[in-house]
Every structure is written in C-alpha cells, then in structure tokens.
Amino acid sequence: MSIxxxxxxxxxxxxxxxxxxxxxxxxxxxxxxxxVADRRNQRIGNALEQAVQEVGASAHKFIIEDYGPRxxxxxxxxxxxxxxxxxxxxxxxxxxxxxxPSRMEFVHTITSHQIKYAHMVGITEDIMxxxxxxxxRKVDEVSRRLLQLASKCKTIKVQxxxxxxxxxxxxxRYTWRKTSGIIEEVWSNxxxxxxxxxxxxxxxxxxxxxxxxxxFSAKYGVISATxxxxxxxxxxxxxxxxxxxxxxxxFWEYCHRYPNSNRVGEFAIGxxxxxxxxxxxxxxxxxxxxxxxxxxxxxxxxxxADWSCLTHVDVITRSCxxxxxxxxxxxxxxxxxxxxxxxxxYLYNDQGIM
Length: 354
What we know:
Helix content is 28%, strand content 26%. The protein is built from 12 helices and 18 strands. Strands 12-11-10-6-5-16-17-18 form an 8-stranded antiparallel beta sheet. A 5-stranded parallel beta sheet has the order 2-1-3-4-8, with helices on both faces. Strands 7-9-13-14-15 form a 5-stranded antiparallel beta sheet, covered by helices on one side.
C-alpha cells in the first residue's frame, strides 16, 4: 500500500527541496553536499541537487543501485569515502527489508565525522509536496516549548479514542532530543517535527491505528481498519494482537529477532503542524502531532541509553490526548496552545485548521 507519486511534476518537488537545503540544512555556498538517492527517488535527488546548486554550493549525487543490488546489506564503500570529503549529507532512499544495519553503518560514519546530515529514508514525492513544505521555524518553536516541559518530567500519559491508555516514565539521565527540521546538531530526519528520548519504562496498552514503521509501512499502509493492540509492561512488549494475523505474526517476529528487539527504545511526540492525516508512510506519519513509540534501538549516542539493537520499528496512535506530568498539552491530536505558551492563531493559521 504505497503512495502514488505519479501526479507530481519536477517543479512541484522544488519548494520542498529548497526548504530542505536553505532552511533545514542552511547550506552555504562554501559547503560540499553529498546526496544519496535510489532509482525510485531519483527525481527527488535531482531536485535536491538543483537546490544545492541554486545556493552556489557543490553537490555530489550517488544512486545506490549503481553500487550493488537491493536490499543493500553492506553500505557501498565508495559512497562512504565520498562522504568524508563533504560537510553536509542527505540520504533519500526508500527502505527495503534488512537494510537497517547498512543504514546504521552510513549514519555512524556521518556522525563520527560531525557531518551535518538529513536522514530522508522513506521519502516520496507526495511527502516532498506536503510535510517538506512545512513552516519549520514554527515547528521548531513548538518543539522547543515541548522540550522544555518534557526534559524535566517524570511521566507522560497518553490516551486515545481507539483505546490507548499508557504511561511513560522518564529519568533525567536520558536526554530528550529535538528534531524539528531545523538541523542544528549533527543529524535529523527530514521531514522533521518531533522530540524523542529513551524512556526508563513504558506501561499500558498502545493501540496502533496509524502506521507501523520499517518495511511494514510500505506493505500495510495505514492500519486504522485493523489496529494492532500492544500490551507493554516494564518497557517490554508482552503481547501483540491484530485481526490481520499476518501483520500480527510478522510484527511479533520482528520484535523478537534480536535481544532487546521487544524493548521500547524510543518515546516521541510529533510536532509537524503541516500534517493532518496519515498517508501510510512512516517518515511523514511519525511527525504528525501526537505520540509514537519504537521497539528496538534507542539511539544511544543521542539519548544516553547504554544498549543497542539491530532492529528499530516505530508504531503510531492517532488523535491522542497527552499529559506531561499533570499538564495536558494535547487534546484529540491538537496542541493546547495555552499549555505551550503560544497563541493558537499563530500555531494554526494557514495550517489547515483555521
């Protein structure tokens, strides 16, 4: 269940590409930019390349299939070597099963050399024309306000009409990170719009009626008609049930592939105000205002978690209510502007609600 990308012209892709290059990455004329794309997203790679050239910087574009078959089980060394000569990198490849270890190899190389990096795994032309056109300065302000609350909190409670009833517990030794689309640190997903951390514990029922991550989103899309019910205790997945028994089986097996594959490694709040409905693609859907969690790798280099895992799969609930400690910050999927100290009209004018 993939997104149809056939209706967009190349010109349609350029506003999102320029947003990525000029606003999110703040590319300057003296920068050297590495762009890694695949055949499916070659036009997106071309649009990003043009946006780089428009600001006077140099672009070095690679198509990953030119260096071996997919799925890519080991990242191509020529591309890794080229990355070492750049100070900005972009990875806009549509994911395939079993590619996470090779992606982690690429990200490790990028982060260890302090290269500013946009991680666009799963990008589509629809997303370039939707979430990548967000007002990222506004998304960044919302993210910063939430970060101020979350970084000091002990608990976050989440409820949803579908039945989600879950509490996350947090310790200040684990760092909350902001990936709002404005890439100030070494790397971030694009499109951006979330804050995240590793939770000390998660307990309760999490009903996935949005999207499942990794390769599941391409296969199953939005699963509102067949929600996945996840029972979590002490931060570990204890039971998964779904009327789609194939999804139930595949998800359970994925979450038991390696040690800690069944452990909640990420707890996140989406903040992209340009997204109002699920499209079936994790890269955009996880940024929708609300809660998502992930089982597997906790991004320890960013969160401070002292363990790792070779799997990482996100799951999303929709239209939720959120309380950070005792302060309610979201109702029905809409941020409570007073709780964030931001004017409602500023938040939602020209964002599709008002």
